[in-house]
Amino acid sequence: MPKITFKASSDIALIKYWGKKDEILRLPENGSVSIILDGLDTITTVEFDPQYKKDQVIIAGEEDREEASRAIKHLDRIRQLAHSDLRAKVISQNSFPKSTGLSSSGSGFAALTFAASKALGLNLSAQELSILTRQGSGTACRCAASGFVEWKDGESSESSYSHSLFPKNHWDIRDVIAVVDEGKKEISSTAGHESAQSSPFFAVRQENIKAKIKLAKKYLLSKKFTQLGELVEAECLEFHSILMTSQPYLLMWYPGSLQVMHAVRKMRQEGIEAYFTINTGFNVHVLTLPKFEQQVNARLQKLSLVKKTLLAQVGAGPQELTKHLF
């Protein structure tokens, strides 16, 4: 069997999903819109071979039992489709910290799905790959697409998938990521989804989410950065209000997160256009335009609670590589 390697990029959700209609199939309570981020990447090599007596999964140089178990469960789904019982060796590396709220599971499961399905000889359509990827990680569903992406919530497995709204060259938006901590999140996103509906604000959010998605798509089409930025920043604050008011509550922000948020608002007052957003974590994405990228990066690097910054731009979907990790 051939050794296959894919690179997949993470994403940043402009309009976020929270809560699941179906935990097993990972059907989201609402749709979402995101940007694929070239610069926050996962590279995964997969090989199926009769000589392997069991699956081996190494992520970022570690054999984490919990992460490996989740990856093997996904390999089982792919094996079932391919009618194969071959075991696999999987090596995966990230260009950014994992389990810190930067959607490493998204790029990770996208790379794993594309590499493993091709290694087993499956010839799946883009929609089928998106649906399969979603079952490994909800966020990964978006990372199976390219550029500016919409994930449809759907009422069944077949109707919940991602597609590209616009290609990566549609609009040059930059993302400066302020890393305030590289430690693992105390509470996983999976656990948080289970308590989403306990927030008293959850129902109100659901009533307005489709209108927000429509607005985001309108601003992306017309390239209105100010309007998009204001929408995204307000969405981030609303999203985290759900997390903070769920039972048990999820308080994701660190002191560094707040320091960055205040700094971004101060930049705007000085004419540097930038807007923050945060996924289910503590590290902060700061969206800006190319002409402001270096200024934003320099300002964030000077903050006392920022450990480092990462730079990303709009990226493509998963891509096959010829160089393998083993």
Task: Tag the structure with descriptive keywords.
eleven-stranded mixed β-sheet, alpha+beta, two-stranded antiparallel sheet, 2 domains, Ribosomal Protein S5, domain 2, Alpha-Beta Plaits, 326 residues, single chain
Q: How many β strands by DSSP?
A: 13
Named at the architecture level, the CATH assignment of the largest domain is 2-Layer Sandwich
Structural class: alpha+beta
Approximately how much beta-strand content do the residues carry? 15-25%
Q: Indicate the percent of residues in helices.
A: 25-40%
For the report, how would you describe the main beta sheet? 11 strands, mixed
The succession of helices and strands, N to C, reads EEEEEHEHHHEEEHHHHEEHEE
CATH topology label of the largest domain: Ribosomal Protein S5, domain 2
Instruction: Give the overall shape, derived from the CA principal axes.
Output: globular
Query: Which residues sit in consecutive blocks of at least 5 with pLDDT less than 50?
Result: none
The total number of structural domains is: 2
Layout of strands and helices, then pairs:
Elements: E1 4-15, E2 20-22, E3 27-28, E4 32-48, E5 56-59, H1 65-82, E6 88-94, H2 104-119, H3 126-136, H4 138-143, E7 148-151, E8 162-166, E9 174-179, H5 189-194, H6 202-222, H7 225-244, H8 255-269, E10 274-277, E11 284-288, H9 290-301, E12 308-314, E13 319-321
Parallel strand pairs: 5-6
Antiparallel strand pairs: 1-4, 1-13, 2-3, 4-6, 4-7, 4-12, 7-8, 9-11, 9-12, 10-11
